[in-house]
Amino acid sequence: MRVTTGDLFWGFLKVGVSGFGGVLPFAHRSIVEHNRWLTEPEFTEALSLAQFLPGPNIVNLSVIIGRRFQGPIGAAAATLGLMLMPLAIVLLLAMLFAQFAHVEAVRNACAGVSAGASGLVLSIALKMARPMRRLPLQLGIAATTFAAIALLRVPLPWALGVLAPLSIGIAWWSNR
Fold first, then answer.
1. C-beta separation of 74 from 5 below 8 A
2. CB proximity list for 1: less than 8 A, separation 6 or greater
3. Nearest to residue 74, comparing CAs of 140, 23, 11?
């Protein structure tokens, strides 16, 4: 598939504007379902790499996808498209919030937006986990990772240090 630098910029610009506050579900819909730049397994693989790398996952994902289709220029175009409007919106909202942070309704609205964003992240996680139904070892790694980090509060570097090599070993072993 031919994806131009302009396609990357405009596609990620739409993602950045649409998904303000919870961009991953919108990125998934745009990249996999709407534009069909990646298949579901390719998206999951790219997102896994993006999550493993330092920095914001969605920015890493834009670099990975942009680089895949148009090299370094594509990576820059996708990242610029992703970040341009949210940056402008954040600056505007920060100025407004500084003026109205003391208002109870504003604080309550922020709490409501947080709940909505959490729901969006959970929905995309469940959608991405669907292909793993037939992979019990991978489901076990996912459940162990969740339990270690969310329930047992194991620090992320420790969890990654143990579970990432284990996960890679399982993937290598199961693909032999």
1. yes
2. 36, 37
3. 11
- Could you tell me how many residues make up the chain? 176
Give the distance, in angstroms, between the CA of residue 96 and the centroid of all CA atoms in the same chain: 27
Taking only the tens place, the pLDDT of each residue in 43-85 is 999 999 999 899 899 999 999 999 999 999 999 999 999 999 9
Helix, strand, coil content of the chain in percent (nearest 5): 85, 0, 15
Burial bucket for residue 26 (CB in 10 Å: 0-12, 13-18, 19+) = buried
If you search the block for the tokens 């970040």, which residue do you land on? 83
Short-list 28, 45, 59, CA closest to 167: 45
**Long-range CB contact pairs, 97-103, < 8 A, 24+:** none
